[in-house]
Amino acid sequence: MILRIGITLVAVLSLAGCFGGSGNGQGLGLPVDFTTFVKGEINQTDNDRNAVAINNLEFSFNDKDNEQAYDDLF
Q: What stretches of the chain adopt beta strand conformation (E)?
């Protein structure tokens, strides 16, 4: 019984380490879709808006082969 609890505890702690601090600021360690991010930023272009910190974001480029990815913006 103690062995099972110990193994479970080690597994939980190991998995918890996978979700923390991958550098994107999202909390789950998941990359941010670049196209979604850009479209969201363009839709929020207020003159008095603060800059968005992107240095710690990890982007995924899911539309790198999609020539029409940004057609609905312009």
A: 32-33, 59-60
The token duo for 56 is: 């710690």
Buried (b) or exposed (e) across 31-62, using 16+ Cβ within 10 A? ebebbeeeeeeeeeeeeeeeeeeeeeeeeeee
Which of 61, 62, 68, 55 is closest to 24 using CA atoms?
55
Distance CA 70, CA 72 (A): 6
6 pLDDT band, cuts 50/70/90, is low
pTM recorded for the entire structure: 0.53
Residues 6+ away with beta carbon under 8 Å from 33: 59, 60, 62
